[in-house]
Structures are given as structure tokens and as C-alpha cells.
Design brief:
Blueprint (H helix, E strand, L loop, with lengths): L2 H22 L14 E4 L2 E6 L15 E6 L5 E5 L6 E4 L5 E5 L6 E9 L2 E8 L2 E3 L7 E3 L3 E6 L4 E5 L18 E4 L5 E4 L6 E5 L5 E6 L16 E4 L7 E6 L4 E5 L5 E6 L4 E2 L3 E3 L2 E8 L18 E5 L5 E3 L8 E2 L2 E2 L13 E6 L5 E5 L8 E5 L1
Antiparallel strand pairs: 1-2, 2-30, 3-4, 4-5, 5-6, 7-8, 8-11, 9-10, 11-12, 13-14, 14-15, 15-16, 17-18, 18-19, 19-20, 21-23, 22-23, 23-24, 24-25, 26-27, 28-29, 29-30
Length: 375
């Protein structure tokens, strides 16, 4: 058996052990205590919570962390998780599971959909994080890659470590967390868990450029946990990139050829990828607490997440699952999780064609995506 096949097989057994451990563990705090039907959100962005939307048989379809979700051209909701027994789960809008596949990505993280000549394709980011083979709980780091896939799971091509094309030194990690596809087909890869560069390739996977990283003379280009990226076409004549710099609690805007435009600071919100819908940017908020302010052994596991909505003027207008956002002197003030603790960690949002939002959660105690019905 090859090393990779052996790793994946062992990961399956490790995931099963972790499942038992998770079910018997005491939660860090009593998140997800709100009931189905509760209303959350603010202003024009208010939603009814449906935590039991997904109809999943846990003996047939396997969940660990729910990382991201997209809606395809047929109206199906396609989710990626990091349980390598079935990384991809496909739902209809009623929550019924239509399909599940994928045994390739123990660190399955990013999921981007593009349409090529009328056909949907998926770009999957394998982040390189996987469970330890020893205890099935400890996370270990390895290099990742990006895979371009058909909707039924056939590999088209992969993008591997930039060291192989002379763009990274051998000691530099490559752990991609997200991709974005430009109107001309160019592929932007956010190396958010690796070396914090944004790498640009053409539609065939040929390298064009990189920018970002951590040690630029112009600090506007520095990224800290470049967790997400999106192509912003709200102004079709002037498309831009929005890049998450989660460690800086900010979105950074760049031109499509990598020139910094502006930084939008988001107070205490450690946001995930930007999801553009209409005139607004939505995102999951993974954490809202300061890591040093909680008395727990692993503060990154403390569950303080929710979601946010930002308008075209870069102003946060709603925080479903969190407190109402407040500005003083045009500066966003810290926003905390709501008293009901609707979510654990907001990792991604998907907005369907009925304006409903589906929230994927990391460290969500193996819960499926939560549906927020727009009201």
C-alpha cells in the first residue's frame, strides 16, 4: 500500500476514534443553545434559525468539520469537510443528501465553484492539516495542494508546492486554504496556513505571480493567516481581490495584479473567506475573543463565533449570531457572540438564490450546516 493510501486509511480509523472522543467530551461552553425558529441578525439582514435543516444519517454520511459550501448552477448545495470518508456532501435546499464522495483530503478546507463553458467545476484546497496517526485527535501539519475537479469527483489537474517551480524555498510551507477564479479564468490561491502568499496561475495552472507574504517593506502587503480570497466584481469595470488577513482582523483589497488598494479593519472579528452576494460581503466569524483573555488550555478552541454582513462601503451592517454592530467615529467597535450562543465557530457562509444563508462551522462538534432563513 502506498504511503498516501496508508495515511488516508489510517485517517479514517483515527477519525472514528475522534468521533467517539468528541461525543463523550464536555463542550468548552454550551454553544448552540438557541432553538430552531429563533430570529437573529440586524437591520435588513434578519434570519430564522434552522439547526436541524440537514437530513444526515451519521452511519452513511460522515461529518467532522464543515468547512465551506457553494451553490451550483442546478441549485444544489455542495459542502466540503475534512472527514476523508466523504469530503464532499451534496444537499438539495430541503436538506436532503443527494450525493457524497471524496476520500482525498484529510485537510479538506476550501471549495470554490466556477463555470466553464456551461459546466460547473470545483476547486478544492487541501490545507495539509490532518489528525495524528497516533491518537486521532492531535492535528499534524503537512504540505497541501489545490485540485480542480468535476462535479462528480474526477480530477482535472492539481497545483502543488510552489517550490517545484522555484517560487518557494524548500523550508517554506504550502498549506492552501482558498482559491478564487477571475473572469478570465486566472486562479488565485491563498496560502493561508502556509507562507501567507497569494499565488496567481492561469486557467491551465501555469504560474504567473505571487504577492503578500509576511515581511514586506510596505506593510500594507503583509498578510497574517491569509485564510480567504474572492474576486470582487461589484464594479464590473474595475474588478478587485478581497483577501482575508485573519490574524490582523481585516480584509485587504488588491488589484487583480496584486497591488494593494486598502485595508478594512474589523475590530475583534477574526473572519474567514469573503463571500460576495449582490452588493454585500458575507463571512463567517471564527473567533470574536482575544486568545489571551480566556482561561482555557487551547484558546483557539473556545467557541465565540458567528457571521457578519458588510455593505459596499465596507461597513458591517449585521452580525447574525452576534451582537448588533456599532460604529463610533466611523470605527467598528468590538462585537461579541450573542447571549444565546447560536454558533460555535462561523467558518463559511453560502447564500442561495432565495437569500437564505447556510453556515458551516469549524470545531462545531460534528454538527451539519445551519440554515438561516431570510425574513
Amino acid at each position: 500500500m502506498s504511503d498516501r493510501r496508508s495515511f488516508l486509511a489510517t485517517s479514517v480509523l483515527a477519525s472514528a476514534a475522534a468521533l467517539l472522543a468528541t461525543r463523550t467530551a464536555t463542550p468548552l461552553h454550551a454553544a448552540n443553545s438557541s432553538d430552531d425558529g429563533d430570529l437573529i441578525g440586524h437591520g435588513d439582514f434578519r434570519y430564522r434559525v434552522h439547526k436541524n435543516w440537514a437530513q444526515i444519517n451519521p452511519f452513511r454520511v460522515h461529518l467532522d468539520n464543515c468547512h465551506e459550501m457553494v451553490q451550483d448552477s442546478k441549485g444544489r448545495l455542495v459542502m466540503i469537510g475534512d472527514d476523508p470518508r466523504n469530503n464532499i456532501i451534496v444537499f438539495d435546499k430541503s436538506g436532503k443528501v443527494l450525493d457524497s464522495w471524496g476520500t482525498y483530503w484529510p485537510g479538506g478546507h476550501g471549495l470554490t465553484l466556477a463555470n466553464e463553458g456551461g459546466d460547473d467545476v470545483l476547486f478544492v484546497s487541501e490545507s495539509g492539516w490532518a489528525r495524528s496517526l497516533d491518537d486521532g485527535v492531535t492535528m499534524v501539519r503537512q504540505n497541501g495542494y489545490v485540485a480542480k475537479m468535476t462535479m462528480d469527483g474526477k480530477m482535472i489537474f492539481t497545483i502543488g508546492h510552489p517550490m517545484t517551480i522555484g517560487e518557494y524555498e524548500p523550508e517554506m510551507g504550502f498549506q492552501p486554504t482558498e482559491t478564487a477564479i477571475a473572469p478570465n479564468g486566472d486562479i488565485y490561491v491563498a496560502d493561508g496556513y502556509g507562507s501567507d502568499y497569494i499565488l496567481r496561475y492561469d486557467q491551465h495552472g501555469r504560474f504567473i505571480q505571487k504577492f503578500g507574504g509576511r515581511n514586506n517593506e510596505d506593510k500594507n502587503y503583509n498578510l497574517a493567516n491569509a485564510h480567504g480570497i474572492a474576486v470582487d466584481t461589484r464594479d464590473p469595470a474595475d474588478p478587485k481581490l478581497i483577501v482575508t488577513s485573519r490574524g490582523q482582523k481585516a480584509f485587504k483589497y488588491f488589484t487583480l495584479d496584486g497591488k494593494w488598494l486598502k485595508t478594512v479593519k474589523l475590530a475583534n472579528l477574526q473572519i474567514c473567506r469573503p463571500v460576495i452576494h449582490g452588493e454585500y460581503v458575507h463571512a463567517g466569524v471564527c473567533w470574536s475573543h482575544q486568545f489571551g483573555a480566556v482561561d482555557v488550555p487551547k484558546p483557539w478552541l473556545y467557541q465565540s463565533g458567528f457571521t457578519m454582513v458588510m455593505d459596499k462601503n465596507d461597513r458591517v451592517v449585521s452580525c447574525p449570531g452576534g451582537e448588533q454592530p456599532v460604529y463610533k467615529d466611523d470605527v467598528l467597535q468590538p462585537v461579541q457572540q450573542d447571549a444565546e450562543r447560536t454558533f460555535y465557530h462561523g467558518h463559511d457562509v453560502c447564500i442561495d438564490d432565495d437569500e437564505n444563508v447556510y453556515v458551516c462551522q469549524w470545531n462545531g462538534e460534528r454538527t451539519p450546516p445551519v440554515k438561516l432563513e431570510r425574513v
